[in-house]
Amino acid sequence: MNTTRPEPITPDPAPAAADAGRIVLLTTSHRVAPGLLSWPAWQALRAADRVLCADGAHPQLPYLREAGTAVDEAAPTAEELVDACAGGRTVVVVATGEGEPALTDGLARLAGSGRVRMPELELLPASYDLPGARLLDLVQVMDRIRAECPWSSRQTHRGLAKYGIEEAYELVEAIEEGDRDELREELGDVLLQVVFHARIAEEDPEAPFSIDDVAGGIVAKLIHRHPHVFGDETASTPEEVKEHWLRTKAVEKRRESVTDGIPLAQPGLALAAKLASRVRTAGLGVPLPQAPGIGYELLALAARAEAEGVDPEAALRAAARAYRDAVRAAEGVAK
C-alpha cells in the first residue's frame, strides 16, 4: 500500500460537452488468483479512457499491464474524478482491498449538493469469492498466530486434544438447544481445531502434512464412499447408502470385525448404541449378554433405542435438561 499521496490527476483536454461521462468502480477479491477477472471487467478496462489505482502494490496491476492496460497510480479526490470524466469520458477506478470509502463518500456529497452534474456511476465486481473462500483467510490467520502468538506457537496435538472434545460437546449442545447463533459460533470453534492441528502437523519433521492434505483426503474419501453419486451404483434409501458406506469402509480399512474402528473411549451409551448399530446393519444375530447389573440394563436400553432410531445419548441429555429445569424451578419456589 502506498504511504505517500500521489499527485492529483488532471483531466485530459476535452471539448465542452453535456455528457458528464462515466465512473466505473472495479472491485476484486484477494481470495482468487490475480488476473482472473470477469469478462465485463475486461470489457470495461479496455473501453476506458483512463484506468486509475491508488495502490501501487495492488496484486492485479502486473496482470492488467501485461494485458496492455495502462494504469495510472493515482488517488483522485471526488472532484478530480468528476472532472476527469468531463466530455463523456469513462474512468475506471481499480478499488483497493479496503474499497474506496473516502472516494465514494465524496461522490455522494457532490451528488447531494446539486451543484455538479454527476457522471454515471457503476459498481462492477471484477472477481467473486467462491464458496468456501473465507477458509483461505482462516488458514492465513492461523499461520500468523502460530508464528507470533506465545501461547499458540507452543501448542501440540496432545495439548490441544481436550479442546477438540470440549468444542464437539459445545457444538452438540448448540444443536440440541436450537440456538442458530451459537451453532454458527461453535462450528467455527470446531473448524479452528481442524485448522490448528493441520498447521501444527506441517512442522512435523518425520511426516508433515497440511490443511490441503487433510481436505484432499476427505474429498477422495467422500467420492469413494458415495459410488451412488460419483459412480455407477444406485441407492434410493438411507439404509442402502449406509450399506455402501460400511462396505466400502471395511474394504478400505481391511477390517476383520464389524466392531473394528469403534472408539471404546466414547461415552458408554454412545458406545453401546454404535455396537448395536454395527451388529444390526451387518445382519448378525448376536444376542445381548444377559447378566445382572445396571451396566447390562443400560446396554439393553441403548440397543433398544438404536433399533427404534433414537440416539440414547441425546435422549438422556434431553431428560437431564428437563431434570435441571425442574431443579431450578423448585429452587425458585423455595426462594
TrEMBL record:
Q: What is its EC number?
A: 3.6.1.9
Transmembrane portions of the chain: none
Show the SUPFAM superfamilies listed in the entry: all-alpha NTP pyrophosphatases, Tetrapyrrole methylase
Pfam families listed in its UniProt record? MazG (PF03819)
Q: Name one GO molecular function term.
A: nucleoside triphosphate diphosphatase activity
**What keywords appear on the UniProt entry?**
Hydrolase
NTP pyrophosphohydrolase MazG-like domain boundaries: 155-230
Q: What class of enzyme is it?
A: hydrolase
Database matches in NCBIfam families = PRK12334.1-4
What protein name applies here? Answer: Nucleoside triphosphate pyrophosphohydrolase
Origin species: Streptomyces sp. 900105755
